[in-house]
Amino acid sequence: MMALIYSPEYLKHRTFNHPESPQRLISIMNSLEESGLINEVTIQTPHMAKEDDLRRIHSKEHVEHVKSFCEGGGGYLDPDTYTSPESYQIARLAAGGTITAAELALESFSSSYSMVRPPGHHATPDRAMGFCLFNNLAVALEHLRETKNIKKFGIFDFDVHYGNGTAEIFYNDPDVLYISIHQDPHTIFPSEGFVEEIGRGPGEGYNLNIPVAPGSKTSDYIYLLERILKPVFEDFGADFYFYDVGFDAHQDDPLSRVLLDDYFFEWMAMEIVSQPGPAALTLEGGYNLESLARCNLKMINVLTHEITIEDQKLTREDYKVRDETKILFKKIEDNFSPFFTF
Q: Which parts of the chain have pLDDT scores under 50?
């Protein structure tokens, strides 16, 4: 059974003529209502993260800067990241929604999905960037580590942009495995997330990047993830799993050049269902409103009914896997062979 964490308060983070808009959540909620699926999901209200929760990840100066900037009227914190007067409080609610999702997945639901905004995976300990104010997932992870005594965490990020903030936060941490599949950083923001960025010190080997070429399709993603995600997760043996959920690798999205179809998000949800252990998802990107709503609906349906690939027995034509995708896998396999068995 899945819990959906949502509040209309998230719409109060107002952005103007900006791809990360309140309409994103409105479109998803409308699709759930129109399909009737909203009557089959358990919707939970998020609680607001405390400033102490934020400071487990972010510097005191960063938290106070975002707070004072928003209370002073808001505007652009950087060339990409817009805030309104309510954004500080709503960003705390987004982090709190991800904490709520994590607690529910741990205690009473097989999975949970925090459908929040602003997103979080680009936010570093001392900087807001890439539409993100605070790192929602990292705040939730540290909350679980401190209050629930959970030891090891697995993170999989399938937003089309590398979650540089999440990676930086846990780059030295051997108890947090961060895996990200994203568009080649030579060609997209934030220009980080290369295969060679593998972690540092005791965290070496626990930052695994899968930078795919522009034009990559669902077949390329499935080829890579079938060979990497489950084997590495099994080797690592996490006690809890977080998923950074992005829909901006869809072929209709205006901010990327990856060409996923709708099926990928069903397939990914089935992979999450089949992964043992509690799982919390949190929303990141996705900026074409139609594909965002449609793919969320498909993903939530799989999670709600706990559909597995075996249950579904889907038949698909055999898409071709690009040669450069096979080369990428071999490079990852070579780089990470000291740490994991593929």
A: 314
Q: What CATH number has the domain spanning 2-336?
A: 3.40.800.20
Q: Where are the domains of the chain?
A: 2-336
CA dist 12 and 104 (Å) reads 25
Which of the following is catalytic: 13, 58, 121, 122?
122
What is the token pair recorded at 251?
């072929």
Sheet holding 2-5, edge to edge: 42-44, 2-5, 111-114, 279-283, 240-245, 153-157, 176-183, 207-212
Which has the closest alpha carbon to 229: 282, 164, 157? Answer: 157
Q: Is the pTM of this model over 0.85?
A: yes
User: Is 122 one of the catalytic residues?
Assistant: yes
Closest CA to 170 of 148, 137, 203, 139: 203
Q: What is the pLDDT of residues 146-174, one digit of tens each?
A: 999 999 999 999 999 999 999 999 999 99
